[in-house]
Amino acid sequence: MVSGMLFDIKHYAVHDGPGIRTTLFFKGCPLRCWWCHNPEGISPEKELIVKPKRCLEECRLCLSSCPENALSKAEGKTIQVDRKKCRAQARCAEICPTGALEMVGKTMTVTEVMQEVNQDRIFYERSGGGVTFSGGEPLQQPEFLDALLTACKKIDLHTVVDTSGHAPFALLERIRDRVDLFFYDLKHMDPDKHREMTGVSNSVILDNLRRLADTDSRIHIRIPLVTGVNDDDAHVRQVAAFLTELPGIQDISLLPYHSMGSQKYSNLNLPYLRFDAKPPTEGAIAGIKAALQQHGFRVKIGG
């Protein structure tokens, strides 16, 4: 039976496509975006998250539960994790009474996921919603994604795939007949800056977008706006010129940068690369929206 790893299932989602939706967050991503607000979705493996504010000073239950002795706790301090030793076996998270330790990442079968999805079917029918595949990057787990899309279409559910586009085009071609809408991320037009910001070139991403647009697939472009990175007039003109050449592209969402996910990096012992970034101002966002609308695009702010 086909299975895969998710790091979250969000019920009653209203910003991940039309109507009320169930959003499935796939674990694993080939990009390392500076501003990523879901760092727990980057690694394809299970991970232990530490939430210091929930840790009780007098509690030591987790220490004896770890077979690798990866946990330690100094007097007056929160729990510490030796990431080199930790094998993410979840025993410490299971025994923690306050939720200070949480294991992120769960292997699930297609049947198990569809049981979760079916809980929300009445909301889809009333709102025109469905299932959104997000991440991480869903295309990192192609067999799992393929099987879930097939299961959704067997019961006539609307499907959205939210992708960075960094994958072999054959994977997009393989699934597109069961995808009602692609959310396609466009982060930067310059290949060198894109590599600096995300760890990968944008050549595959842009080429895949061109090829996907030629298939008459429905595509909604999503652009993260990061001050000083991709919000200048020259870059906005580049984006508009590129998208204008693609058939069928009409919808763009602008996603202003925020730092609400920064604490997650500390909880995972990961460096937060954009700690100094500022959210774009309302005036800057409005100006970019207006500039893109002048080219005939339908533009909205947020998901």
Summary?
This protein has 303 residues and is of the alpha/beta class.
Q: What would you say this structure looks like, in words?
A:
The protein has helices spanning 91-95, 110-118, 121-127, 142-154, 169-175, 191-198, 203-213, 233-244, 262-267, 282-293, and strands spanning 3-13, 21-26, 47-50, 71-72, 80-81, 101-104, 106-109, 130-135, 158-163, 181-185, 219-225, 251-256, 298-301. The protein is an alpha/beta fold and 303 residues long. The chain folds into 2 domains: 3-44 and 106-301, Aldolase class I (TIM Barrel, Alpha-Beta Barrel), CATH 3.20.20.70; 47-104, Alpha-Beta Plaits (2-Layer Sandwich). Strands 7-1-2-8-9-10-11-12-13 form a 9-stranded mixed β-sheet. A two-stranded antiparallel sheet has the order 3-6. The protein is globular, with a radius of gyration of 21 Å. It starts with a strand and ends with a strand. The model has no long low-confidence stretch (mean pLDDT 93).
Observed structural traits:
30% helix; alpha/beta; 303 residues; Alpha-Beta Plaits; 10 helices; two-stranded antiparallel sheet; TIM Barrel; nine-stranded mixed sheet
**Total beta-strand segments:** 13
- Tell me the fraction of residues in β-strands, as a range: 15-25%
Overall, the morphology is: globular
CATH architecture field of the largest domain: Alpha-Beta Barrel
Biggest sheet, in brief? 9 strands, mixed
Question: How large is the count of helical segments?
Answer: 10
Q: State the CATH class of the largest domain.
A: Alpha Beta
Output the helix-strand order.
Answer: EEEEEHEEHHEHEHEHHEHEHHE
Coarse structural class: alpha/beta
Helicity, as a percent range: 25-40%
How far apart are the first and last residues' alpha carbons, in Å? 33 Å
Q: Summarize model confidence as the mean pLDDT.
A: 93
Order of strands in the sheet with most strands? 7-1-2-8-9-10-11-12-13
